[in-house]
Amino acid sequence: MFKRFLSLEWKQFSRSSYFQKGLAIKILLILAALYFIVCFGVLGVFSFFLIEDGFPNEDPLEVVNNYLVFWFLIDLGFRFFMQQLPVMNIKPYMIIPIKRETVIHYLLGKTTLSFFNILPLFFFLPFSIVLLAQGYNPFQVICWFFSMVFFTISLNYLNFLLNKNNKVFYAIVAVLGALILLEFYHIYPIAEYAGLFFNEIYNKWYAVSIPLLLMILLYRRNYKFIREGFYLDDAIRKESKEVSSTDLGFLNRFGSIAPFLKNDVKLIIRNARPKQVLMMSFLFLFYGLIFYTQDMYRDMPAFLAFASIFVTGGFLLSFGQLVPSWDSEYYKMLMSQNIPYRKYLESKWYLMVVAVVASFILSTPYLYFGYKIYSMIAAGALFNIGLNSFITLYGGVLNRVPVELNVKAKAFSNTQGFNPTQLLIALPKMAGPMLIFYLPYKFINFEAGILALALSGILGLVFKNFFLNQIEKVYQKGKYKTIAAFDEKK
Amino acid sequence: MIEVHNLSKSYNSTQVLNIPSLDIPKGQSFGLVGNNGAGKTTFFSLLLDLIQPTTGNIKNKQVVVNESEDWKPFTSSFIDESFLIGYLTAEEYFYFIGELRGQTKADVDTLLNGFEDFFHGEILQQKKYLRDLSKGNQKKAGIVASFIGNPEVVILDEPFANLDPTTQIRLKQIIKDLAQTKGVTVLVSSHDLIHVTEVCERIVLLDKGEVVRDMMTSEATLQELETYFAR
């Protein structure tokens, strides 16, 4: 039976529309996966020696154990946003003679092979091998390794339970935040206590039974959960919460674009996919940390300019590139209504601008890195508002991919809204600000570079009407194509 | 009200619609019947400028629909669920359409009051998004939304499908009223020959994209249609 399921699964995969898209996308996806695998592998091989150098007085394994709790929490966080729930189209199986147990075991079993479970292996396996080579007790190392595997798979199943319950999730996020703060300000050494726990797991080989039991427990909990819900009304139809109509009357001050703006706000807060984008764009705020903290980039301000764009532009870039795809589900209706494209576009533009301004305010802590960095972020924000917003909107029009609003994007299979045109459009978004900054910086000085970047944004604002007119024309030209593309079966 | 000239639509040299000429006067309730693939939805899509005609054009109140957008303010339609915005509640959706068509909230409320019977308590104040309503209830919401803003032309694709019997009967009355008392031109397509003959003053039968019958409804119409489809 499992074999037959597998073959169906394979057909679903190989015949799905995204897989039949371009070769380029497939290669890129594989490259992305490889990139992560290599990163984890390298980390696995070298972290032992790096820690040994960094903390000569400590046992590298203990250091790793001390931070494992954060590793697992972050893992869980990523899973929550990126990992899909195990979904199989169970409707056809309900009326044919297959044991429900079989279907459920298959459903749960296949999630074990998820990329999220395999990726950590690329760290733990080489790390364990290094431990062995360094003369650690082989039996204990092997038990420790399996403990890690069981913990990882436990997270896998925990995530599915969490995904069904938002409250639990937010509780976990709050706890995680608190833990990090406590640790960061040395108020309470959380990592140490968690470290003790993981060290014990290493020291006492039979402690491997704890994660093993945890895994089995969570598996059974999931099993029960699905078993109880193995009926059409529960499993297939998503529970619909009580909702109330909201007016968002305060947005009426925006005049003629108000109806669109109100709709867009609801679009973002009521659908899984845009919510995901919102969360991800929040993470973009921290992008600067990668660049600003490293001395290597201090001398390459062009890269800092690049990073500054992302700090304030996360939402703009990720939301904007899917305009008008966000409205693909009801695009035909919009097109048969009396809708001025201009108002529609302006509404999206305002949303993006508001997001940039909000990100800019949230990025105030970057002042810590000095006024130079901060002025760069400010200039980047201006560039985002004045130029990037229009470039992104323009790119979106050419990006005729239907988006399923209430379905989370799958990690590593998310090719919705991703094609070569998109790459071409991405070029000016990334290289543009670097160039605008770099040339005056090279020939005059740092301040001139900042000024040029800021001025380019202001210039863009001055020509707002011109840009919107141009984009509107593209819309008009591509109307039928867009309708047809959005109409395609997903 | 609606004039069709030399209209045809082909996909890769396969012709799916060919209507040399068709006039629909103002205030007529017009029914379109035909088997699957006859071109009903294609015709409506052309009328709404959702696809481009291969040849010819359609004039809606003297406006060539694929050249100007001036027909939009007085034309409204419900083709399928993709005309609904899934993440809005029914009320929010009605107000949104109202705003697009220049209606105040009060205007929309007044109109909705008239449809309380039709809604049968299943649409308004449901605390549900449209995407969570049943197919039938979604359809009810979509159909009523197409009446917002005093349109002069209303286009409904298969409005009777998925509706429960009570609602079907009410909808028939509503469509008749629209055409007879308010002078609205109503275009309806349907697979249900009985409904369409009851509601429409005129019925056009499409087959493989061609008009094969064009008749004013009389007592004999239903019989004639049944004979045609039974062949």
From TrEMBL, chain A:
Provide the alphabetized UniProt keywords. Membrane, Transmembrane, Transmembrane helix
For this protein, the record's InterPro entries field holds:
DUF5687 (IPR043742)
Report the transmembrane regions from the record: 23-51, 63-82, 103-133, 139-161, 168-189, 201-219, 277-294, 300-323, 349-368, 374-397, 418-438, 444-463
What's the name of the protein? ABC-2 type transport system permease protein
From TrEMBL, chain B:
Give an example GO molecular function.
ATP binding
Which keywords does this chain's UniProt record carry?
A: ATP-binding, Nucleotide-binding, Transport
Q: Which InterPro entries match?
A: AAA+_ATPase, ABC_transporter-like_ATP-bd, ABC_transporter-like_CS, ABC_Transporter_VariousFunc, P-loop_NTPase
Q: Which domain of life is it from?
A: Bacteria
Q: Which Pfam families match?
A: ABC_tran
The record places domain ABC transporter at 2-230
The answer on whether this UniProt entry bears the keyword Ribonucleoprotein reads no
For this entry, the protein name equals ABC-2 type transport system ATP-binding protein
